[in-house]
Amino acid sequence: MFTNDLLYQLALTQVPQVGDIQARLLVQRFGSAEAVFKARKHQLETMEGIGSIRAENICRFSNFAPAAAEINFLERYQIQPLFLPRPATRKGCCNVPMHPCCFFTKAQPTSMHPRFWP
């Protein structure tokens, strides 16, 4: 069973005009995807690369149904989502600017190459 935090993580990837880089920066700044959605507009728009339009999109976002459907799909097919930044992620992988904020795998993170997952 996935946590409620996963709902917010997946929803953040679905906010219009918020891409992988912005999502990753937002989570790094606010500590979690849930905290990003609970942040006030002025807190969001003061971040470099976010601005008033993206901040407004985040504050007005309310369609969590696709994220919930995606969680059901992940559970049904036993797919493990991996989000960056992860505390266990090596620095070299996490600091690549164009690196996506989410991966999907059927493997356990510990069975993956140690360069990325210690």
Sum up the structure in keywords.
118 residues, DNA damage, DisA/LigA_HHH, Rossmann fold, mainly alpha, DNA repair, disordered C terminus
Provide a quick synopsis of the model.
The protein is mainly alpha-helical and 118 residues long. It is 48% helix and 7% strand.
Descriptive overview:
- This protein is mainly α and 118 residues long.
- It has one domain: Rossmann fold.
- It is built from 7 helices and 2 strands; from the N terminus they run H-H-H-H-H-H-E-H-E.
- The chain has helices at residues 4-12, 20-30, 33-38, 41-45, 51-60, 65-76, 91-94; strands spanning 80-83, 102-105.
- It is elongated and about 40 Å long.
Write the layout of secondary structure elements.
Blueprint: H1 4-12, H2 20-30, H3 33-38, H4 41-45, H5 51-60, H6 65-76, E1 80-83, H7 91-94, E2 102-105
Antiparallel strand pairs: 1-2
Helix pairs in contact: 1-6
Distance from N terminus to C terminus (CA atoms, Å) equals 24 Å
Rg from C-alpha positions? 15 Å
For the biggest sheet, the summary is: 2 strands, antiparallel
- Just give the CATH class: Alpha Beta
Mean pLDDT across all amino acids: 80
Oligomer: single chain
Number of strands: 2
From the spread of the alpha carbons, the general shape counts as elongated
Sketch the topology as an H/E string, one letter per element: HHHHHHEHE
Helix segment count?
A: 7
Q: Segments where pLDDT lies below 50 for 5+ residues?
A: 86-92, 94-98, 113-118
Beta-strand share of residues: 5-15%
Fill in the CATH topology: Rossmann fold
Q: In which range does the helix fraction lie? A: 40-55%
Number of domains: 1
CATH second-level architecture: 3-Layer(aba) Sandwich
Structural class assignment: mainly alpha
Which strands sit side by side, in order, in the main sheet?
A: 1-2
Pfam family, one: HHH_2
Organism: Cnuella takakiae
InterPro entries: DisA/LigA_HHH (IPR041663), RuvA_2-like (IPR010994)
Keywords: DNA damage, DNA repair
